[in-house]
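Give me structure tokens for this 329-residue protein.
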Amino acid sequence: MSAEASVGSHSADSAQSTVCHPACHNADEHRSQGLLGSKYVKLNVGGSLHYTTVQTLSKEDSLLQSICNGGTDVTIDSEGWVVLDRCGRHFSLVLNFLRDGSVPLPEDHRELDEVLKEAQYYRVQGLVQHCLSAMQKQKDVFETVCRIPMITSAKEEQKMIATCRKPVVKLQNNRGNNKYSYTSNSDDNLLKNIELFDKLVLRFNGRVLFVKDVLGDEICCWSFYGEGRKIAEVCCTSIVYATEKKQTKVEFPEARIFEETLNILIYENGRGSGPGGLHLLDSRGSGSSLGQSEEEGAVGGERRVRRIHVRRHIMHDERGHGQQTVYKD
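Here you go.
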């Protein structure tokens, strides 16, 4: 009796093994074949369902093409969906790129980085290059954004200039610091100085640090710094002795300001620290057609600061043609 039971049990196990092995063999064969012989593909990417063709997925030498030709094992559920364990948020963008060869990318830098990560995972090199090009364009745009620091104290200003590795151009602009009235053209010239400052910021952004000081003692004065020290200064204000009262005049020495800005670039990346840079700056003539230049030095061999005063102490007013002009000592 036990022998018969043993034989029956052995027969049942053999039958079960006979049934099981073909099923397992078919599953492995189906997994290894991938999607060969199929025209359409149903993809379940992290719960996001997509319906496309093998031809679309095979347009580039990518992971998706490898899935289609059987080079990569895939998991197919009972309903025939190919299951991919990835977030499906940007997968439609990957599919559209394979379909059209180009696709609009998100402007947000974080989302663009997410699309790049998906493109790299699926090895879609065309989309990878598209994302990298878009990121480079965004970087170029960001670099043109002008950042002008706001100084709240003289101590903070000195610390920033002393520690800055770039050349510094500072404009002191305080119209209210005047005990006299302004001449007729002073307001226009003051605005021109401010506009020139903005133009220089756009022109030399990234190479020069620009500082605007609206709380200083000077009405309109440009200062140029290199390696933490003042190299030159252009004062744009002067006193006009009119008939009955004194007036403050603001000049606009555009050429001289632009010249000093170009000169300060020699201190970019520490290039002005050598003897050649010093010789280049010190060899410039002290005279100027736009004003008077003063060079100050200190005991101990310290470098001099060029101070340019535009038409300082002008001895006439700004009356129109035909009106009397008064000169005073």
